[in-house]
Amino acid sequence: MSAAFPFAVLGNVAGLVRRAGVAASPVDGLLPPPRPAGSRRRRLWELPHKFHCPLVGVCFDCQELRTLMKKVMHFPPGTTDFVLHTTAVGACEERTPLAEAMQKTLEQRYRLAVRGLAGLRDTDGLRNAWRQVVADGTAIPATLWACWTHPAMDAELEQEIFADIHMIQHQVGAGTRADLQAMERLRRDNAELRRQLAAQGAELDEARAGRVAATQAAAKETAGLRAELAAAEAAGARVAKELAELRARIVDLDTRETLARRAAAAEAREAAERRRAEGLAGELARLRATVRPPEPPPAAEIDAEEEAAELPATRDLAGKCVLCVGGRTGAVDSYREVVEQSGGRFVHHDGGVEENLQRIDSALAAADIVICQVGCISHNAYWRVKAQCKRTGKPCMFVKSAGVSSFGRAVEAVGRQEA
Questions:
Q1: What is d(CA 320, CA 383) in angstroms, rounded to the nearest whole number?
Q2: Predicted TM-score of the model (pTM)
Q3: Which pLDDT value is given to residue 36?
Q4: Mind listing the pLDDT tens digit for each residue in 368-415?
Q5: May I ask the CATH architecture of the domain 304-418?
Q6: C-alpha 270: how far from its chain's center?
Q7: Which distant-in-sequence residues (6+ apart) come within 8 Å of 298 by Cβ?
Q8: How would you classify the pairing of strands 396-399 and 369-373?
Q9: Domain extents in the chain
Q10: Whole-angstrom Cα distance, residue 162 to residue 148?
């Protein structure tokens, strides 16, 4: 037995004859077995042996053969597909357990094709049916089995079918090679597409980074415009105040001409500042429409020492209500103690952190003095406090630090000015 085959190949007719002690003919095993009498369909082992190779190759894949062979024999796990195929082909030469299992599988699988050709009574009908299937390229395995086992099959037609199936297998092999070449081209195309996709991804990341930078620049510019707008509003307020003073002092001027010149100059300055403020407001609106920057921190913070000079001078707090806007929650009691030690009444609002921002208006109305801790309040609260204090002329001191010591210095500054 050859080392390439780990188990015996069944169906060697000449070997069985020799083991039986009968002289074998030189052509034993070459001629097809005799056709069965009557109209009975041939079984797998009754077909010419040379037909078994294409029949097994076309109708069974290697995994099917492996499953069937496990049921009737033992073979090593590493047995190659070629050994499986040749063993199955050899087993079909006789009625072996494997041949019977394959016969049963073929009959069950292709019963519709067998039933479809059962009504044919001559080789011409079989030939036409076979040629139609070959032309269509479909149902070749089923028709192959139904034709070769048909009672009307003769030697000439079965040889024609053998030649056709031989060439079809060659064509399938050529098609497989073409498919492999096409697959290789697809692999190369896929690699190129992946490279292009990576390049486009890098370009997209770069564009995204540029957009982020542009957004940040726009936000910075918007913050600058807000600061300029606040400065312009302050300048306009100063000019308006100067104009009001000029109008009030009209009786003290030497001549109406001098008053008119000064008033005209003040009005011109006011108009210029108003136009500048309107321009800044328009630019700010344009930037708001194109980008939504993060809310900037409250601008125009004023040191306690600078604001203290604007407070009215009295002796002490003398029971006045001091409103503290913002500050640290844990230090509110300390703020209260500082104010009450200076003779005042203490009121607190957290600047919109947790309390309703609408309540700050009533707190501002009730307060005599406002101390605003700009580092701990919202942007809207800052502007609301500043606008209302400016409108009512109420003393307002802006403190940068939320510490108790900074608050105490602010109260002390108020006390000095009130003294």
A1: 24
A2: 0.35
A3: 45
A4: 889 998 888 888 888 989 999 999 888 888 898 888 888 888 887 776
A5: 3-Layer(aba) Sandwich (3.40)
A6: 56
A7: 374, 377, 379, 382, 383
A8: parallel
A9: 13-178, 213-290, 304-418
A10: 9
